[in-house]
Structure formats: C-alpha cells, structure tokens
Design brief:
The protein is an alpha/beta fold. It is 37% helix and 14% strand.
Length: 249
C-alpha cells in the first residue's frame, strides 16, 4: 500500500483525510496571510493540559531544542552585534523564518514571540512567531473547535521542520500527513533522557507510535520490537511500537 514501510501513515492520510471547504478556507487564508513569504517554516506543537501550570522548564526545552538543532537562530545579548549582522544581510536580503506554534495555551507563544521581538537573531535572520488559536481547553463535539484543530494539524504538516510533544496524537497526525521526521520533546520520565543536554530527539520515522501494541505471538508473547524487522520501540513511549524503514533502525 505504500512505497516504503515508514510512509504508511502518510499514504493513508493523504488519500482519506481531506478537509471540508470551510477548513480548507481556514488553512489557505492563514497560510497566505502569514506564511507564504517566509523562506523557512518551523512548526512547534506544544501539548499541555488546562490544569497544568505554565512551565518555564518546558519553554527552555523548546527553545534549546529549536536552537541546538538549527531550526531557529540563537539570540544576541546586545544590539551592537545585531547592527553588524543586519549590515551583512542587507546586501543579500534578510532571510525570514515563520514559526507556527499550536497549543491550547497562549503563554508559550507569547514567550517565544517576545524573545525574538526583544532581542535580535545572532545571524541577522528575521523570525516571526504565530499562533492560529489558543482555545484554553479541548472542547469535544464543538465543531468550530474541531475545525480549528484540523486546520492547525494541516498547517503543521506544511512546515519544513517540525517539533512535537512526545505521545501526542495531534503531533503524530501532523508529522504523518506532512511526511516529516520531527524533533520530539521527551517527557522527563521517559528513560530519564530529557534535560538541558538533550531537550529533544529526532524521530526515527514519520510514523506515529502505537501506544498499546500487540505482541508478536500470543502464546510465546515475544516482543515485536525485537522480532519484526520493520517495527521498533518508540522514543517517546518505550512500551509502544512504530513502523520504521530497515535502513533507519
């Protein structure tokens, strides 16, 4: 059904998961107004729950991941080097980066947007940060809320680079639809790997993680992640399984 094992989700979604005319309007209007002129598109999907407090630690991991992995430029401490960087880029034109942040909360967008407004990028690039919506909480069965969620998933799938929150089906759908190998923000509890030295990890494939994975053999109860050649345990949910290409293992 797909040319490679690790493109199964992308193939199935692209054939069967189409926006309605209304949702397509949300997508195209937002893209044309905010994203079409940028030289690079970076998506950041932040999955937080309404009862969770705004987390400076999570914010630090998001920015450290984006800057360490080269998705976003670092920031200058003073404006004097910024003038020199701007002078160098004037001749060749300023490179612009559009960042799309999706989250139920506005706090992470406000913090990252403020960073790149109050301080200049070290390489002289122009970084503009957007957030299509911040609904505050998930509203099950509310059509307007669901339309916005679908539009934001589709917008994330159009990014050149994508950062997702581990174990989030919202992020899984966006990466599968866009055929993107994301950088995944790991929870601190996952193998103790999350922290300032490793704020994120590169996804092993564009496929989502199956959190409740079947065993390879019901009687022998073998671990499918060790037996099946195109399946591997997930970085963000070690008990789960995901499809990978053999060469990506």
């Amino acid at each position: 059904m797909s040319p490679a094992t690790a493109t199964t989700t992308a193939a199935r979604i692209s054939f069967g998961f189409h926006p309605t005319n209304h949702v397509w309007g949300l997508i195209t209007r937002y893209y044309r107004a905010h994203l079409a002129s940028a030289q690079r598109l970076v998506g950041i999907q932040v999955r937080v729950f309404p009862w969770e407090a705004d987390s400076p630690e999570l914010l630090e991991r998001i920015t450290a991941c984006a800057q360490k992995e080269g998705l976003l430029p670092g920031l200058l401490d003073t404006e004097e080097p910024a003038a020199k960087a701007a002078a160098k880029t004037t001749a060749r034109g300023v490179r612009s980066i559009a960042v799309v942040i999706t989250s139920l909360k506005a706090w992470y967008y406000e913090q990252i947007q403020g960073m790149y407004w109050e301080r200049a990028a070290a390489n002289g690039e122009l970084v503009v940060v957007h957030q299509p919506s911040h609904e505050g909480r998930q509203r099950y069965g509310v059509k307007s809320h669901e339309h916005k969620a679908w539009a934001e998933i589709y917008l994330l799938s159009m990014m050149d680079m994508l950062v997702t929150t581990g174990t989030s089906t919202f992020g899984y759908t966006a990466q599968g639809l866009g055929g993107l190998r994301p950088w995944v923000l790991l929870n601190q509890q996952v193998n103790g790997t999350a922290g300032p030295n490793q704020p994120c990890t590169r996804g092993m494939s564009m496929e989502p993680c199956c959190h409740v994975a079947p065993l390879y053999d019901c009687k022998r109860r073998q671990d499918s992640g060790k037996v099946v050649p195109h399946v591997q345990h997930c970085d963000d949910f070690p008990a789960g399984l995901k499809l990978v290409n053999r060469k990506e293992r």
